[in-house]
Task: structure prediction
Amino acid sequence: MTIEIGVLGYRFMGKAHANALARLPMFFPDAPDVERSVLVGRDEAALEDAADRLGFDSIATDWADVVDDVDAFYNLGPNHIHAEPSIAALEAGTPVFCEKPLAPTLEGAEEMATAAREAGDGVPAGCAFNYRFVPAIRYAKRLLDAGELGEIRHARGRYLQDWLVDPDAPWSWRNDEELAGSGALGDLGAHTVDLLRYLVGDDDLAGEMERISGQLQTFVDERQVEGSDGETRPVTVDDAYSAQVAFENGAMGTLEASRFATGHKNDHTIEIHGSEGSLRFSLERLNELEVMRTDENRGYETVLVTDEDDPYLEHWWPPGHVIGWEHTFVHENYEFLQAVESGGEFEPSFEDGLAAQRVLAAIEESDENGEWVSI
Ligand code: SOE
Result:
């Protein structure tokens, strides 16, 4: 079976996923055969050029003409267009892979998760939290699931970038509540919430996030419109957020993200402390996992996660020949397309996307009322 894919969106995420689809046949020969069938967008000229560059057979300017005609629909557009096309595809029985966060609002995420439930088990609906597919994160999950860190006491995640530090950096859809829903909270915090749920959210570890207290901050409240003659638009979302979390099983959590963390380009770090040991991960050193075991008490040791028996690595290069950010998209596409071919489950699903959205909404509510909020 050749899976014909329709993709909405051809900028940053369009390129990341098109690159991943192009790499699959060479590095994952057991992956399903895939055709980059149709690229969807509004600007026909830009679309033609992107389709040519990204290897698509055709273009369409209306997603409604596509969602019922392909074997899988990728929604890689800005957050405000995640819901309607994805729901239409699911109602047509077409599997959907949607970029994160699932939606700008909790209501939108609930509607999308309902559509996925109603589409039934044979129609995978995935939320593209690509950091679950970093080999070092999979290695961390193996340690945690084996109980090697013991009782989880602390889970900490922060995602620091600095691309908006310059007040002259132009306005974009990521700065607008209508288009994005939130700022660093949804764009970056969604990743961290999902990753902590993936790593320690099981009942025998920290469990789900139960209560949260958080704050949002906007440092620069208007930005110039690129290419305009001095026109500005308001920034109606957060530039940064921080939160503290109470997990079901008593563990404590801290979360933060910023677009103003000078000196940090794409620094997503996770730290887990348990009764038997700890682990530390940084996206800026994504081939490594730092692990500390109390019974050896030698402090943190750096594990280079590039051996052939490490997750996904047998598909790439010999040990030590490190991989990068883009490879996480190859891994998540490999898993999603196998689910499409088999009509099976894919995680993270729309349920996971909704679970993350509930945490984001609780942080927004806590920021508004200044109190702890139950999730
Ligand atoms: C923000 O700049 C961003 O592109 C996020 O939207 C992505 O999800 C993240 O992986 C990298 O940074």
Notes: The mean pLDDT is 97.
